[in-house]
Predict the structure.
Amino acid sequence: MPKIAKYLVIGSTEAYSGKSATVVGIAHQLQQKGVDIAYGKPLGTCPSENQVDKIDEDVRFVGETLNLSGNRLLSPLVFLDEETITKRLQGEDRTNYSEALAQSMQGPAGSLVLLEGAGTMDEGILLNLSLLQVSETLDASVLLVTRFRSALTAGIVLAAKQRLGDRLVGVLLNDIPPQQMEFAETLVRPFLESQGVPVLGMLPRSALLRSVSVTELTQRLKAEVLCRPDRLDLMVESLKIGAMNVNSAIKYFSEGRNMAVVTGGDRSDIQIAALDSYTQCLILTGSMAPSQIVLNRAEEMEVPVLSVDLDTLTTVEIIEHALGQVRLQEPVKVEYIRQMMAEHFDIDRLLARLGLEPVAARK
């Protein structure tokens, strides 16, 4: 097998920071530059529903998106779940996962292996698969993806730098609110650079990347689709709750965009008001069937109507959790992140930091 030249671990300081999106964006640019890449995720967090292969869903998705062959994909060594951790704590699982990781790297081809780290800096530490442990085992470089929340983000990055040392080749500041972009660009970026932390990219907040498809909401809510099952590919960017009088609802809905509206199955007035606004799906609680007038209007407006056997509070919590996760599962998101990374991420600087050159530059 050819010797693998380099490893790059994409890690983060908190869960759902955009690691998979970063992998897809970087990998696309690397492929365009002729760099032969492989991809893996040592610690699984998204088990497949397919009981045969049990591959991590992120690994499957990234592999398909990047069109990587089997010898350029690394399945997780272990999945991080309560059963796994319990066995570890009880001493039933004494596997040396650091050794297993090193051995697994003897198989894949490629000149650069991109490895997706765990959700946080410390996740996986009980299995010797934390971000630092993986990077030390493989003598790998680390690219840190950090959601930009405030000026305090600079301190979070510096703390990570202290722990990772020279393995940290750079940071990607992600999900920057529009009102904080100038502050991040003029103050935070120069400060981090002065502290020896290369800022390789700065991505503005995107409603699209934080959105979720109606299909995924249907699955998470275990909902029944009452109409327009052909429009479950619509993307939801925000959530509105219809629990007021209809006049207030009309104004309330007019301020939203690409919404999921949650309301009681008996509130026909609210349902009609929602359908006449920027609603992507109507979610009815209480297991009450809507009127035929509502269903006819939804058919006409091409808006899926879902019925859930849940109370409003539980329904809202599930949707808010889904909207808080940046998951790439739709082609429109993949294309968008590719464009965003091409515009806002310095791939040439990353290659230089890794000691790699694009194929074109070597010819």
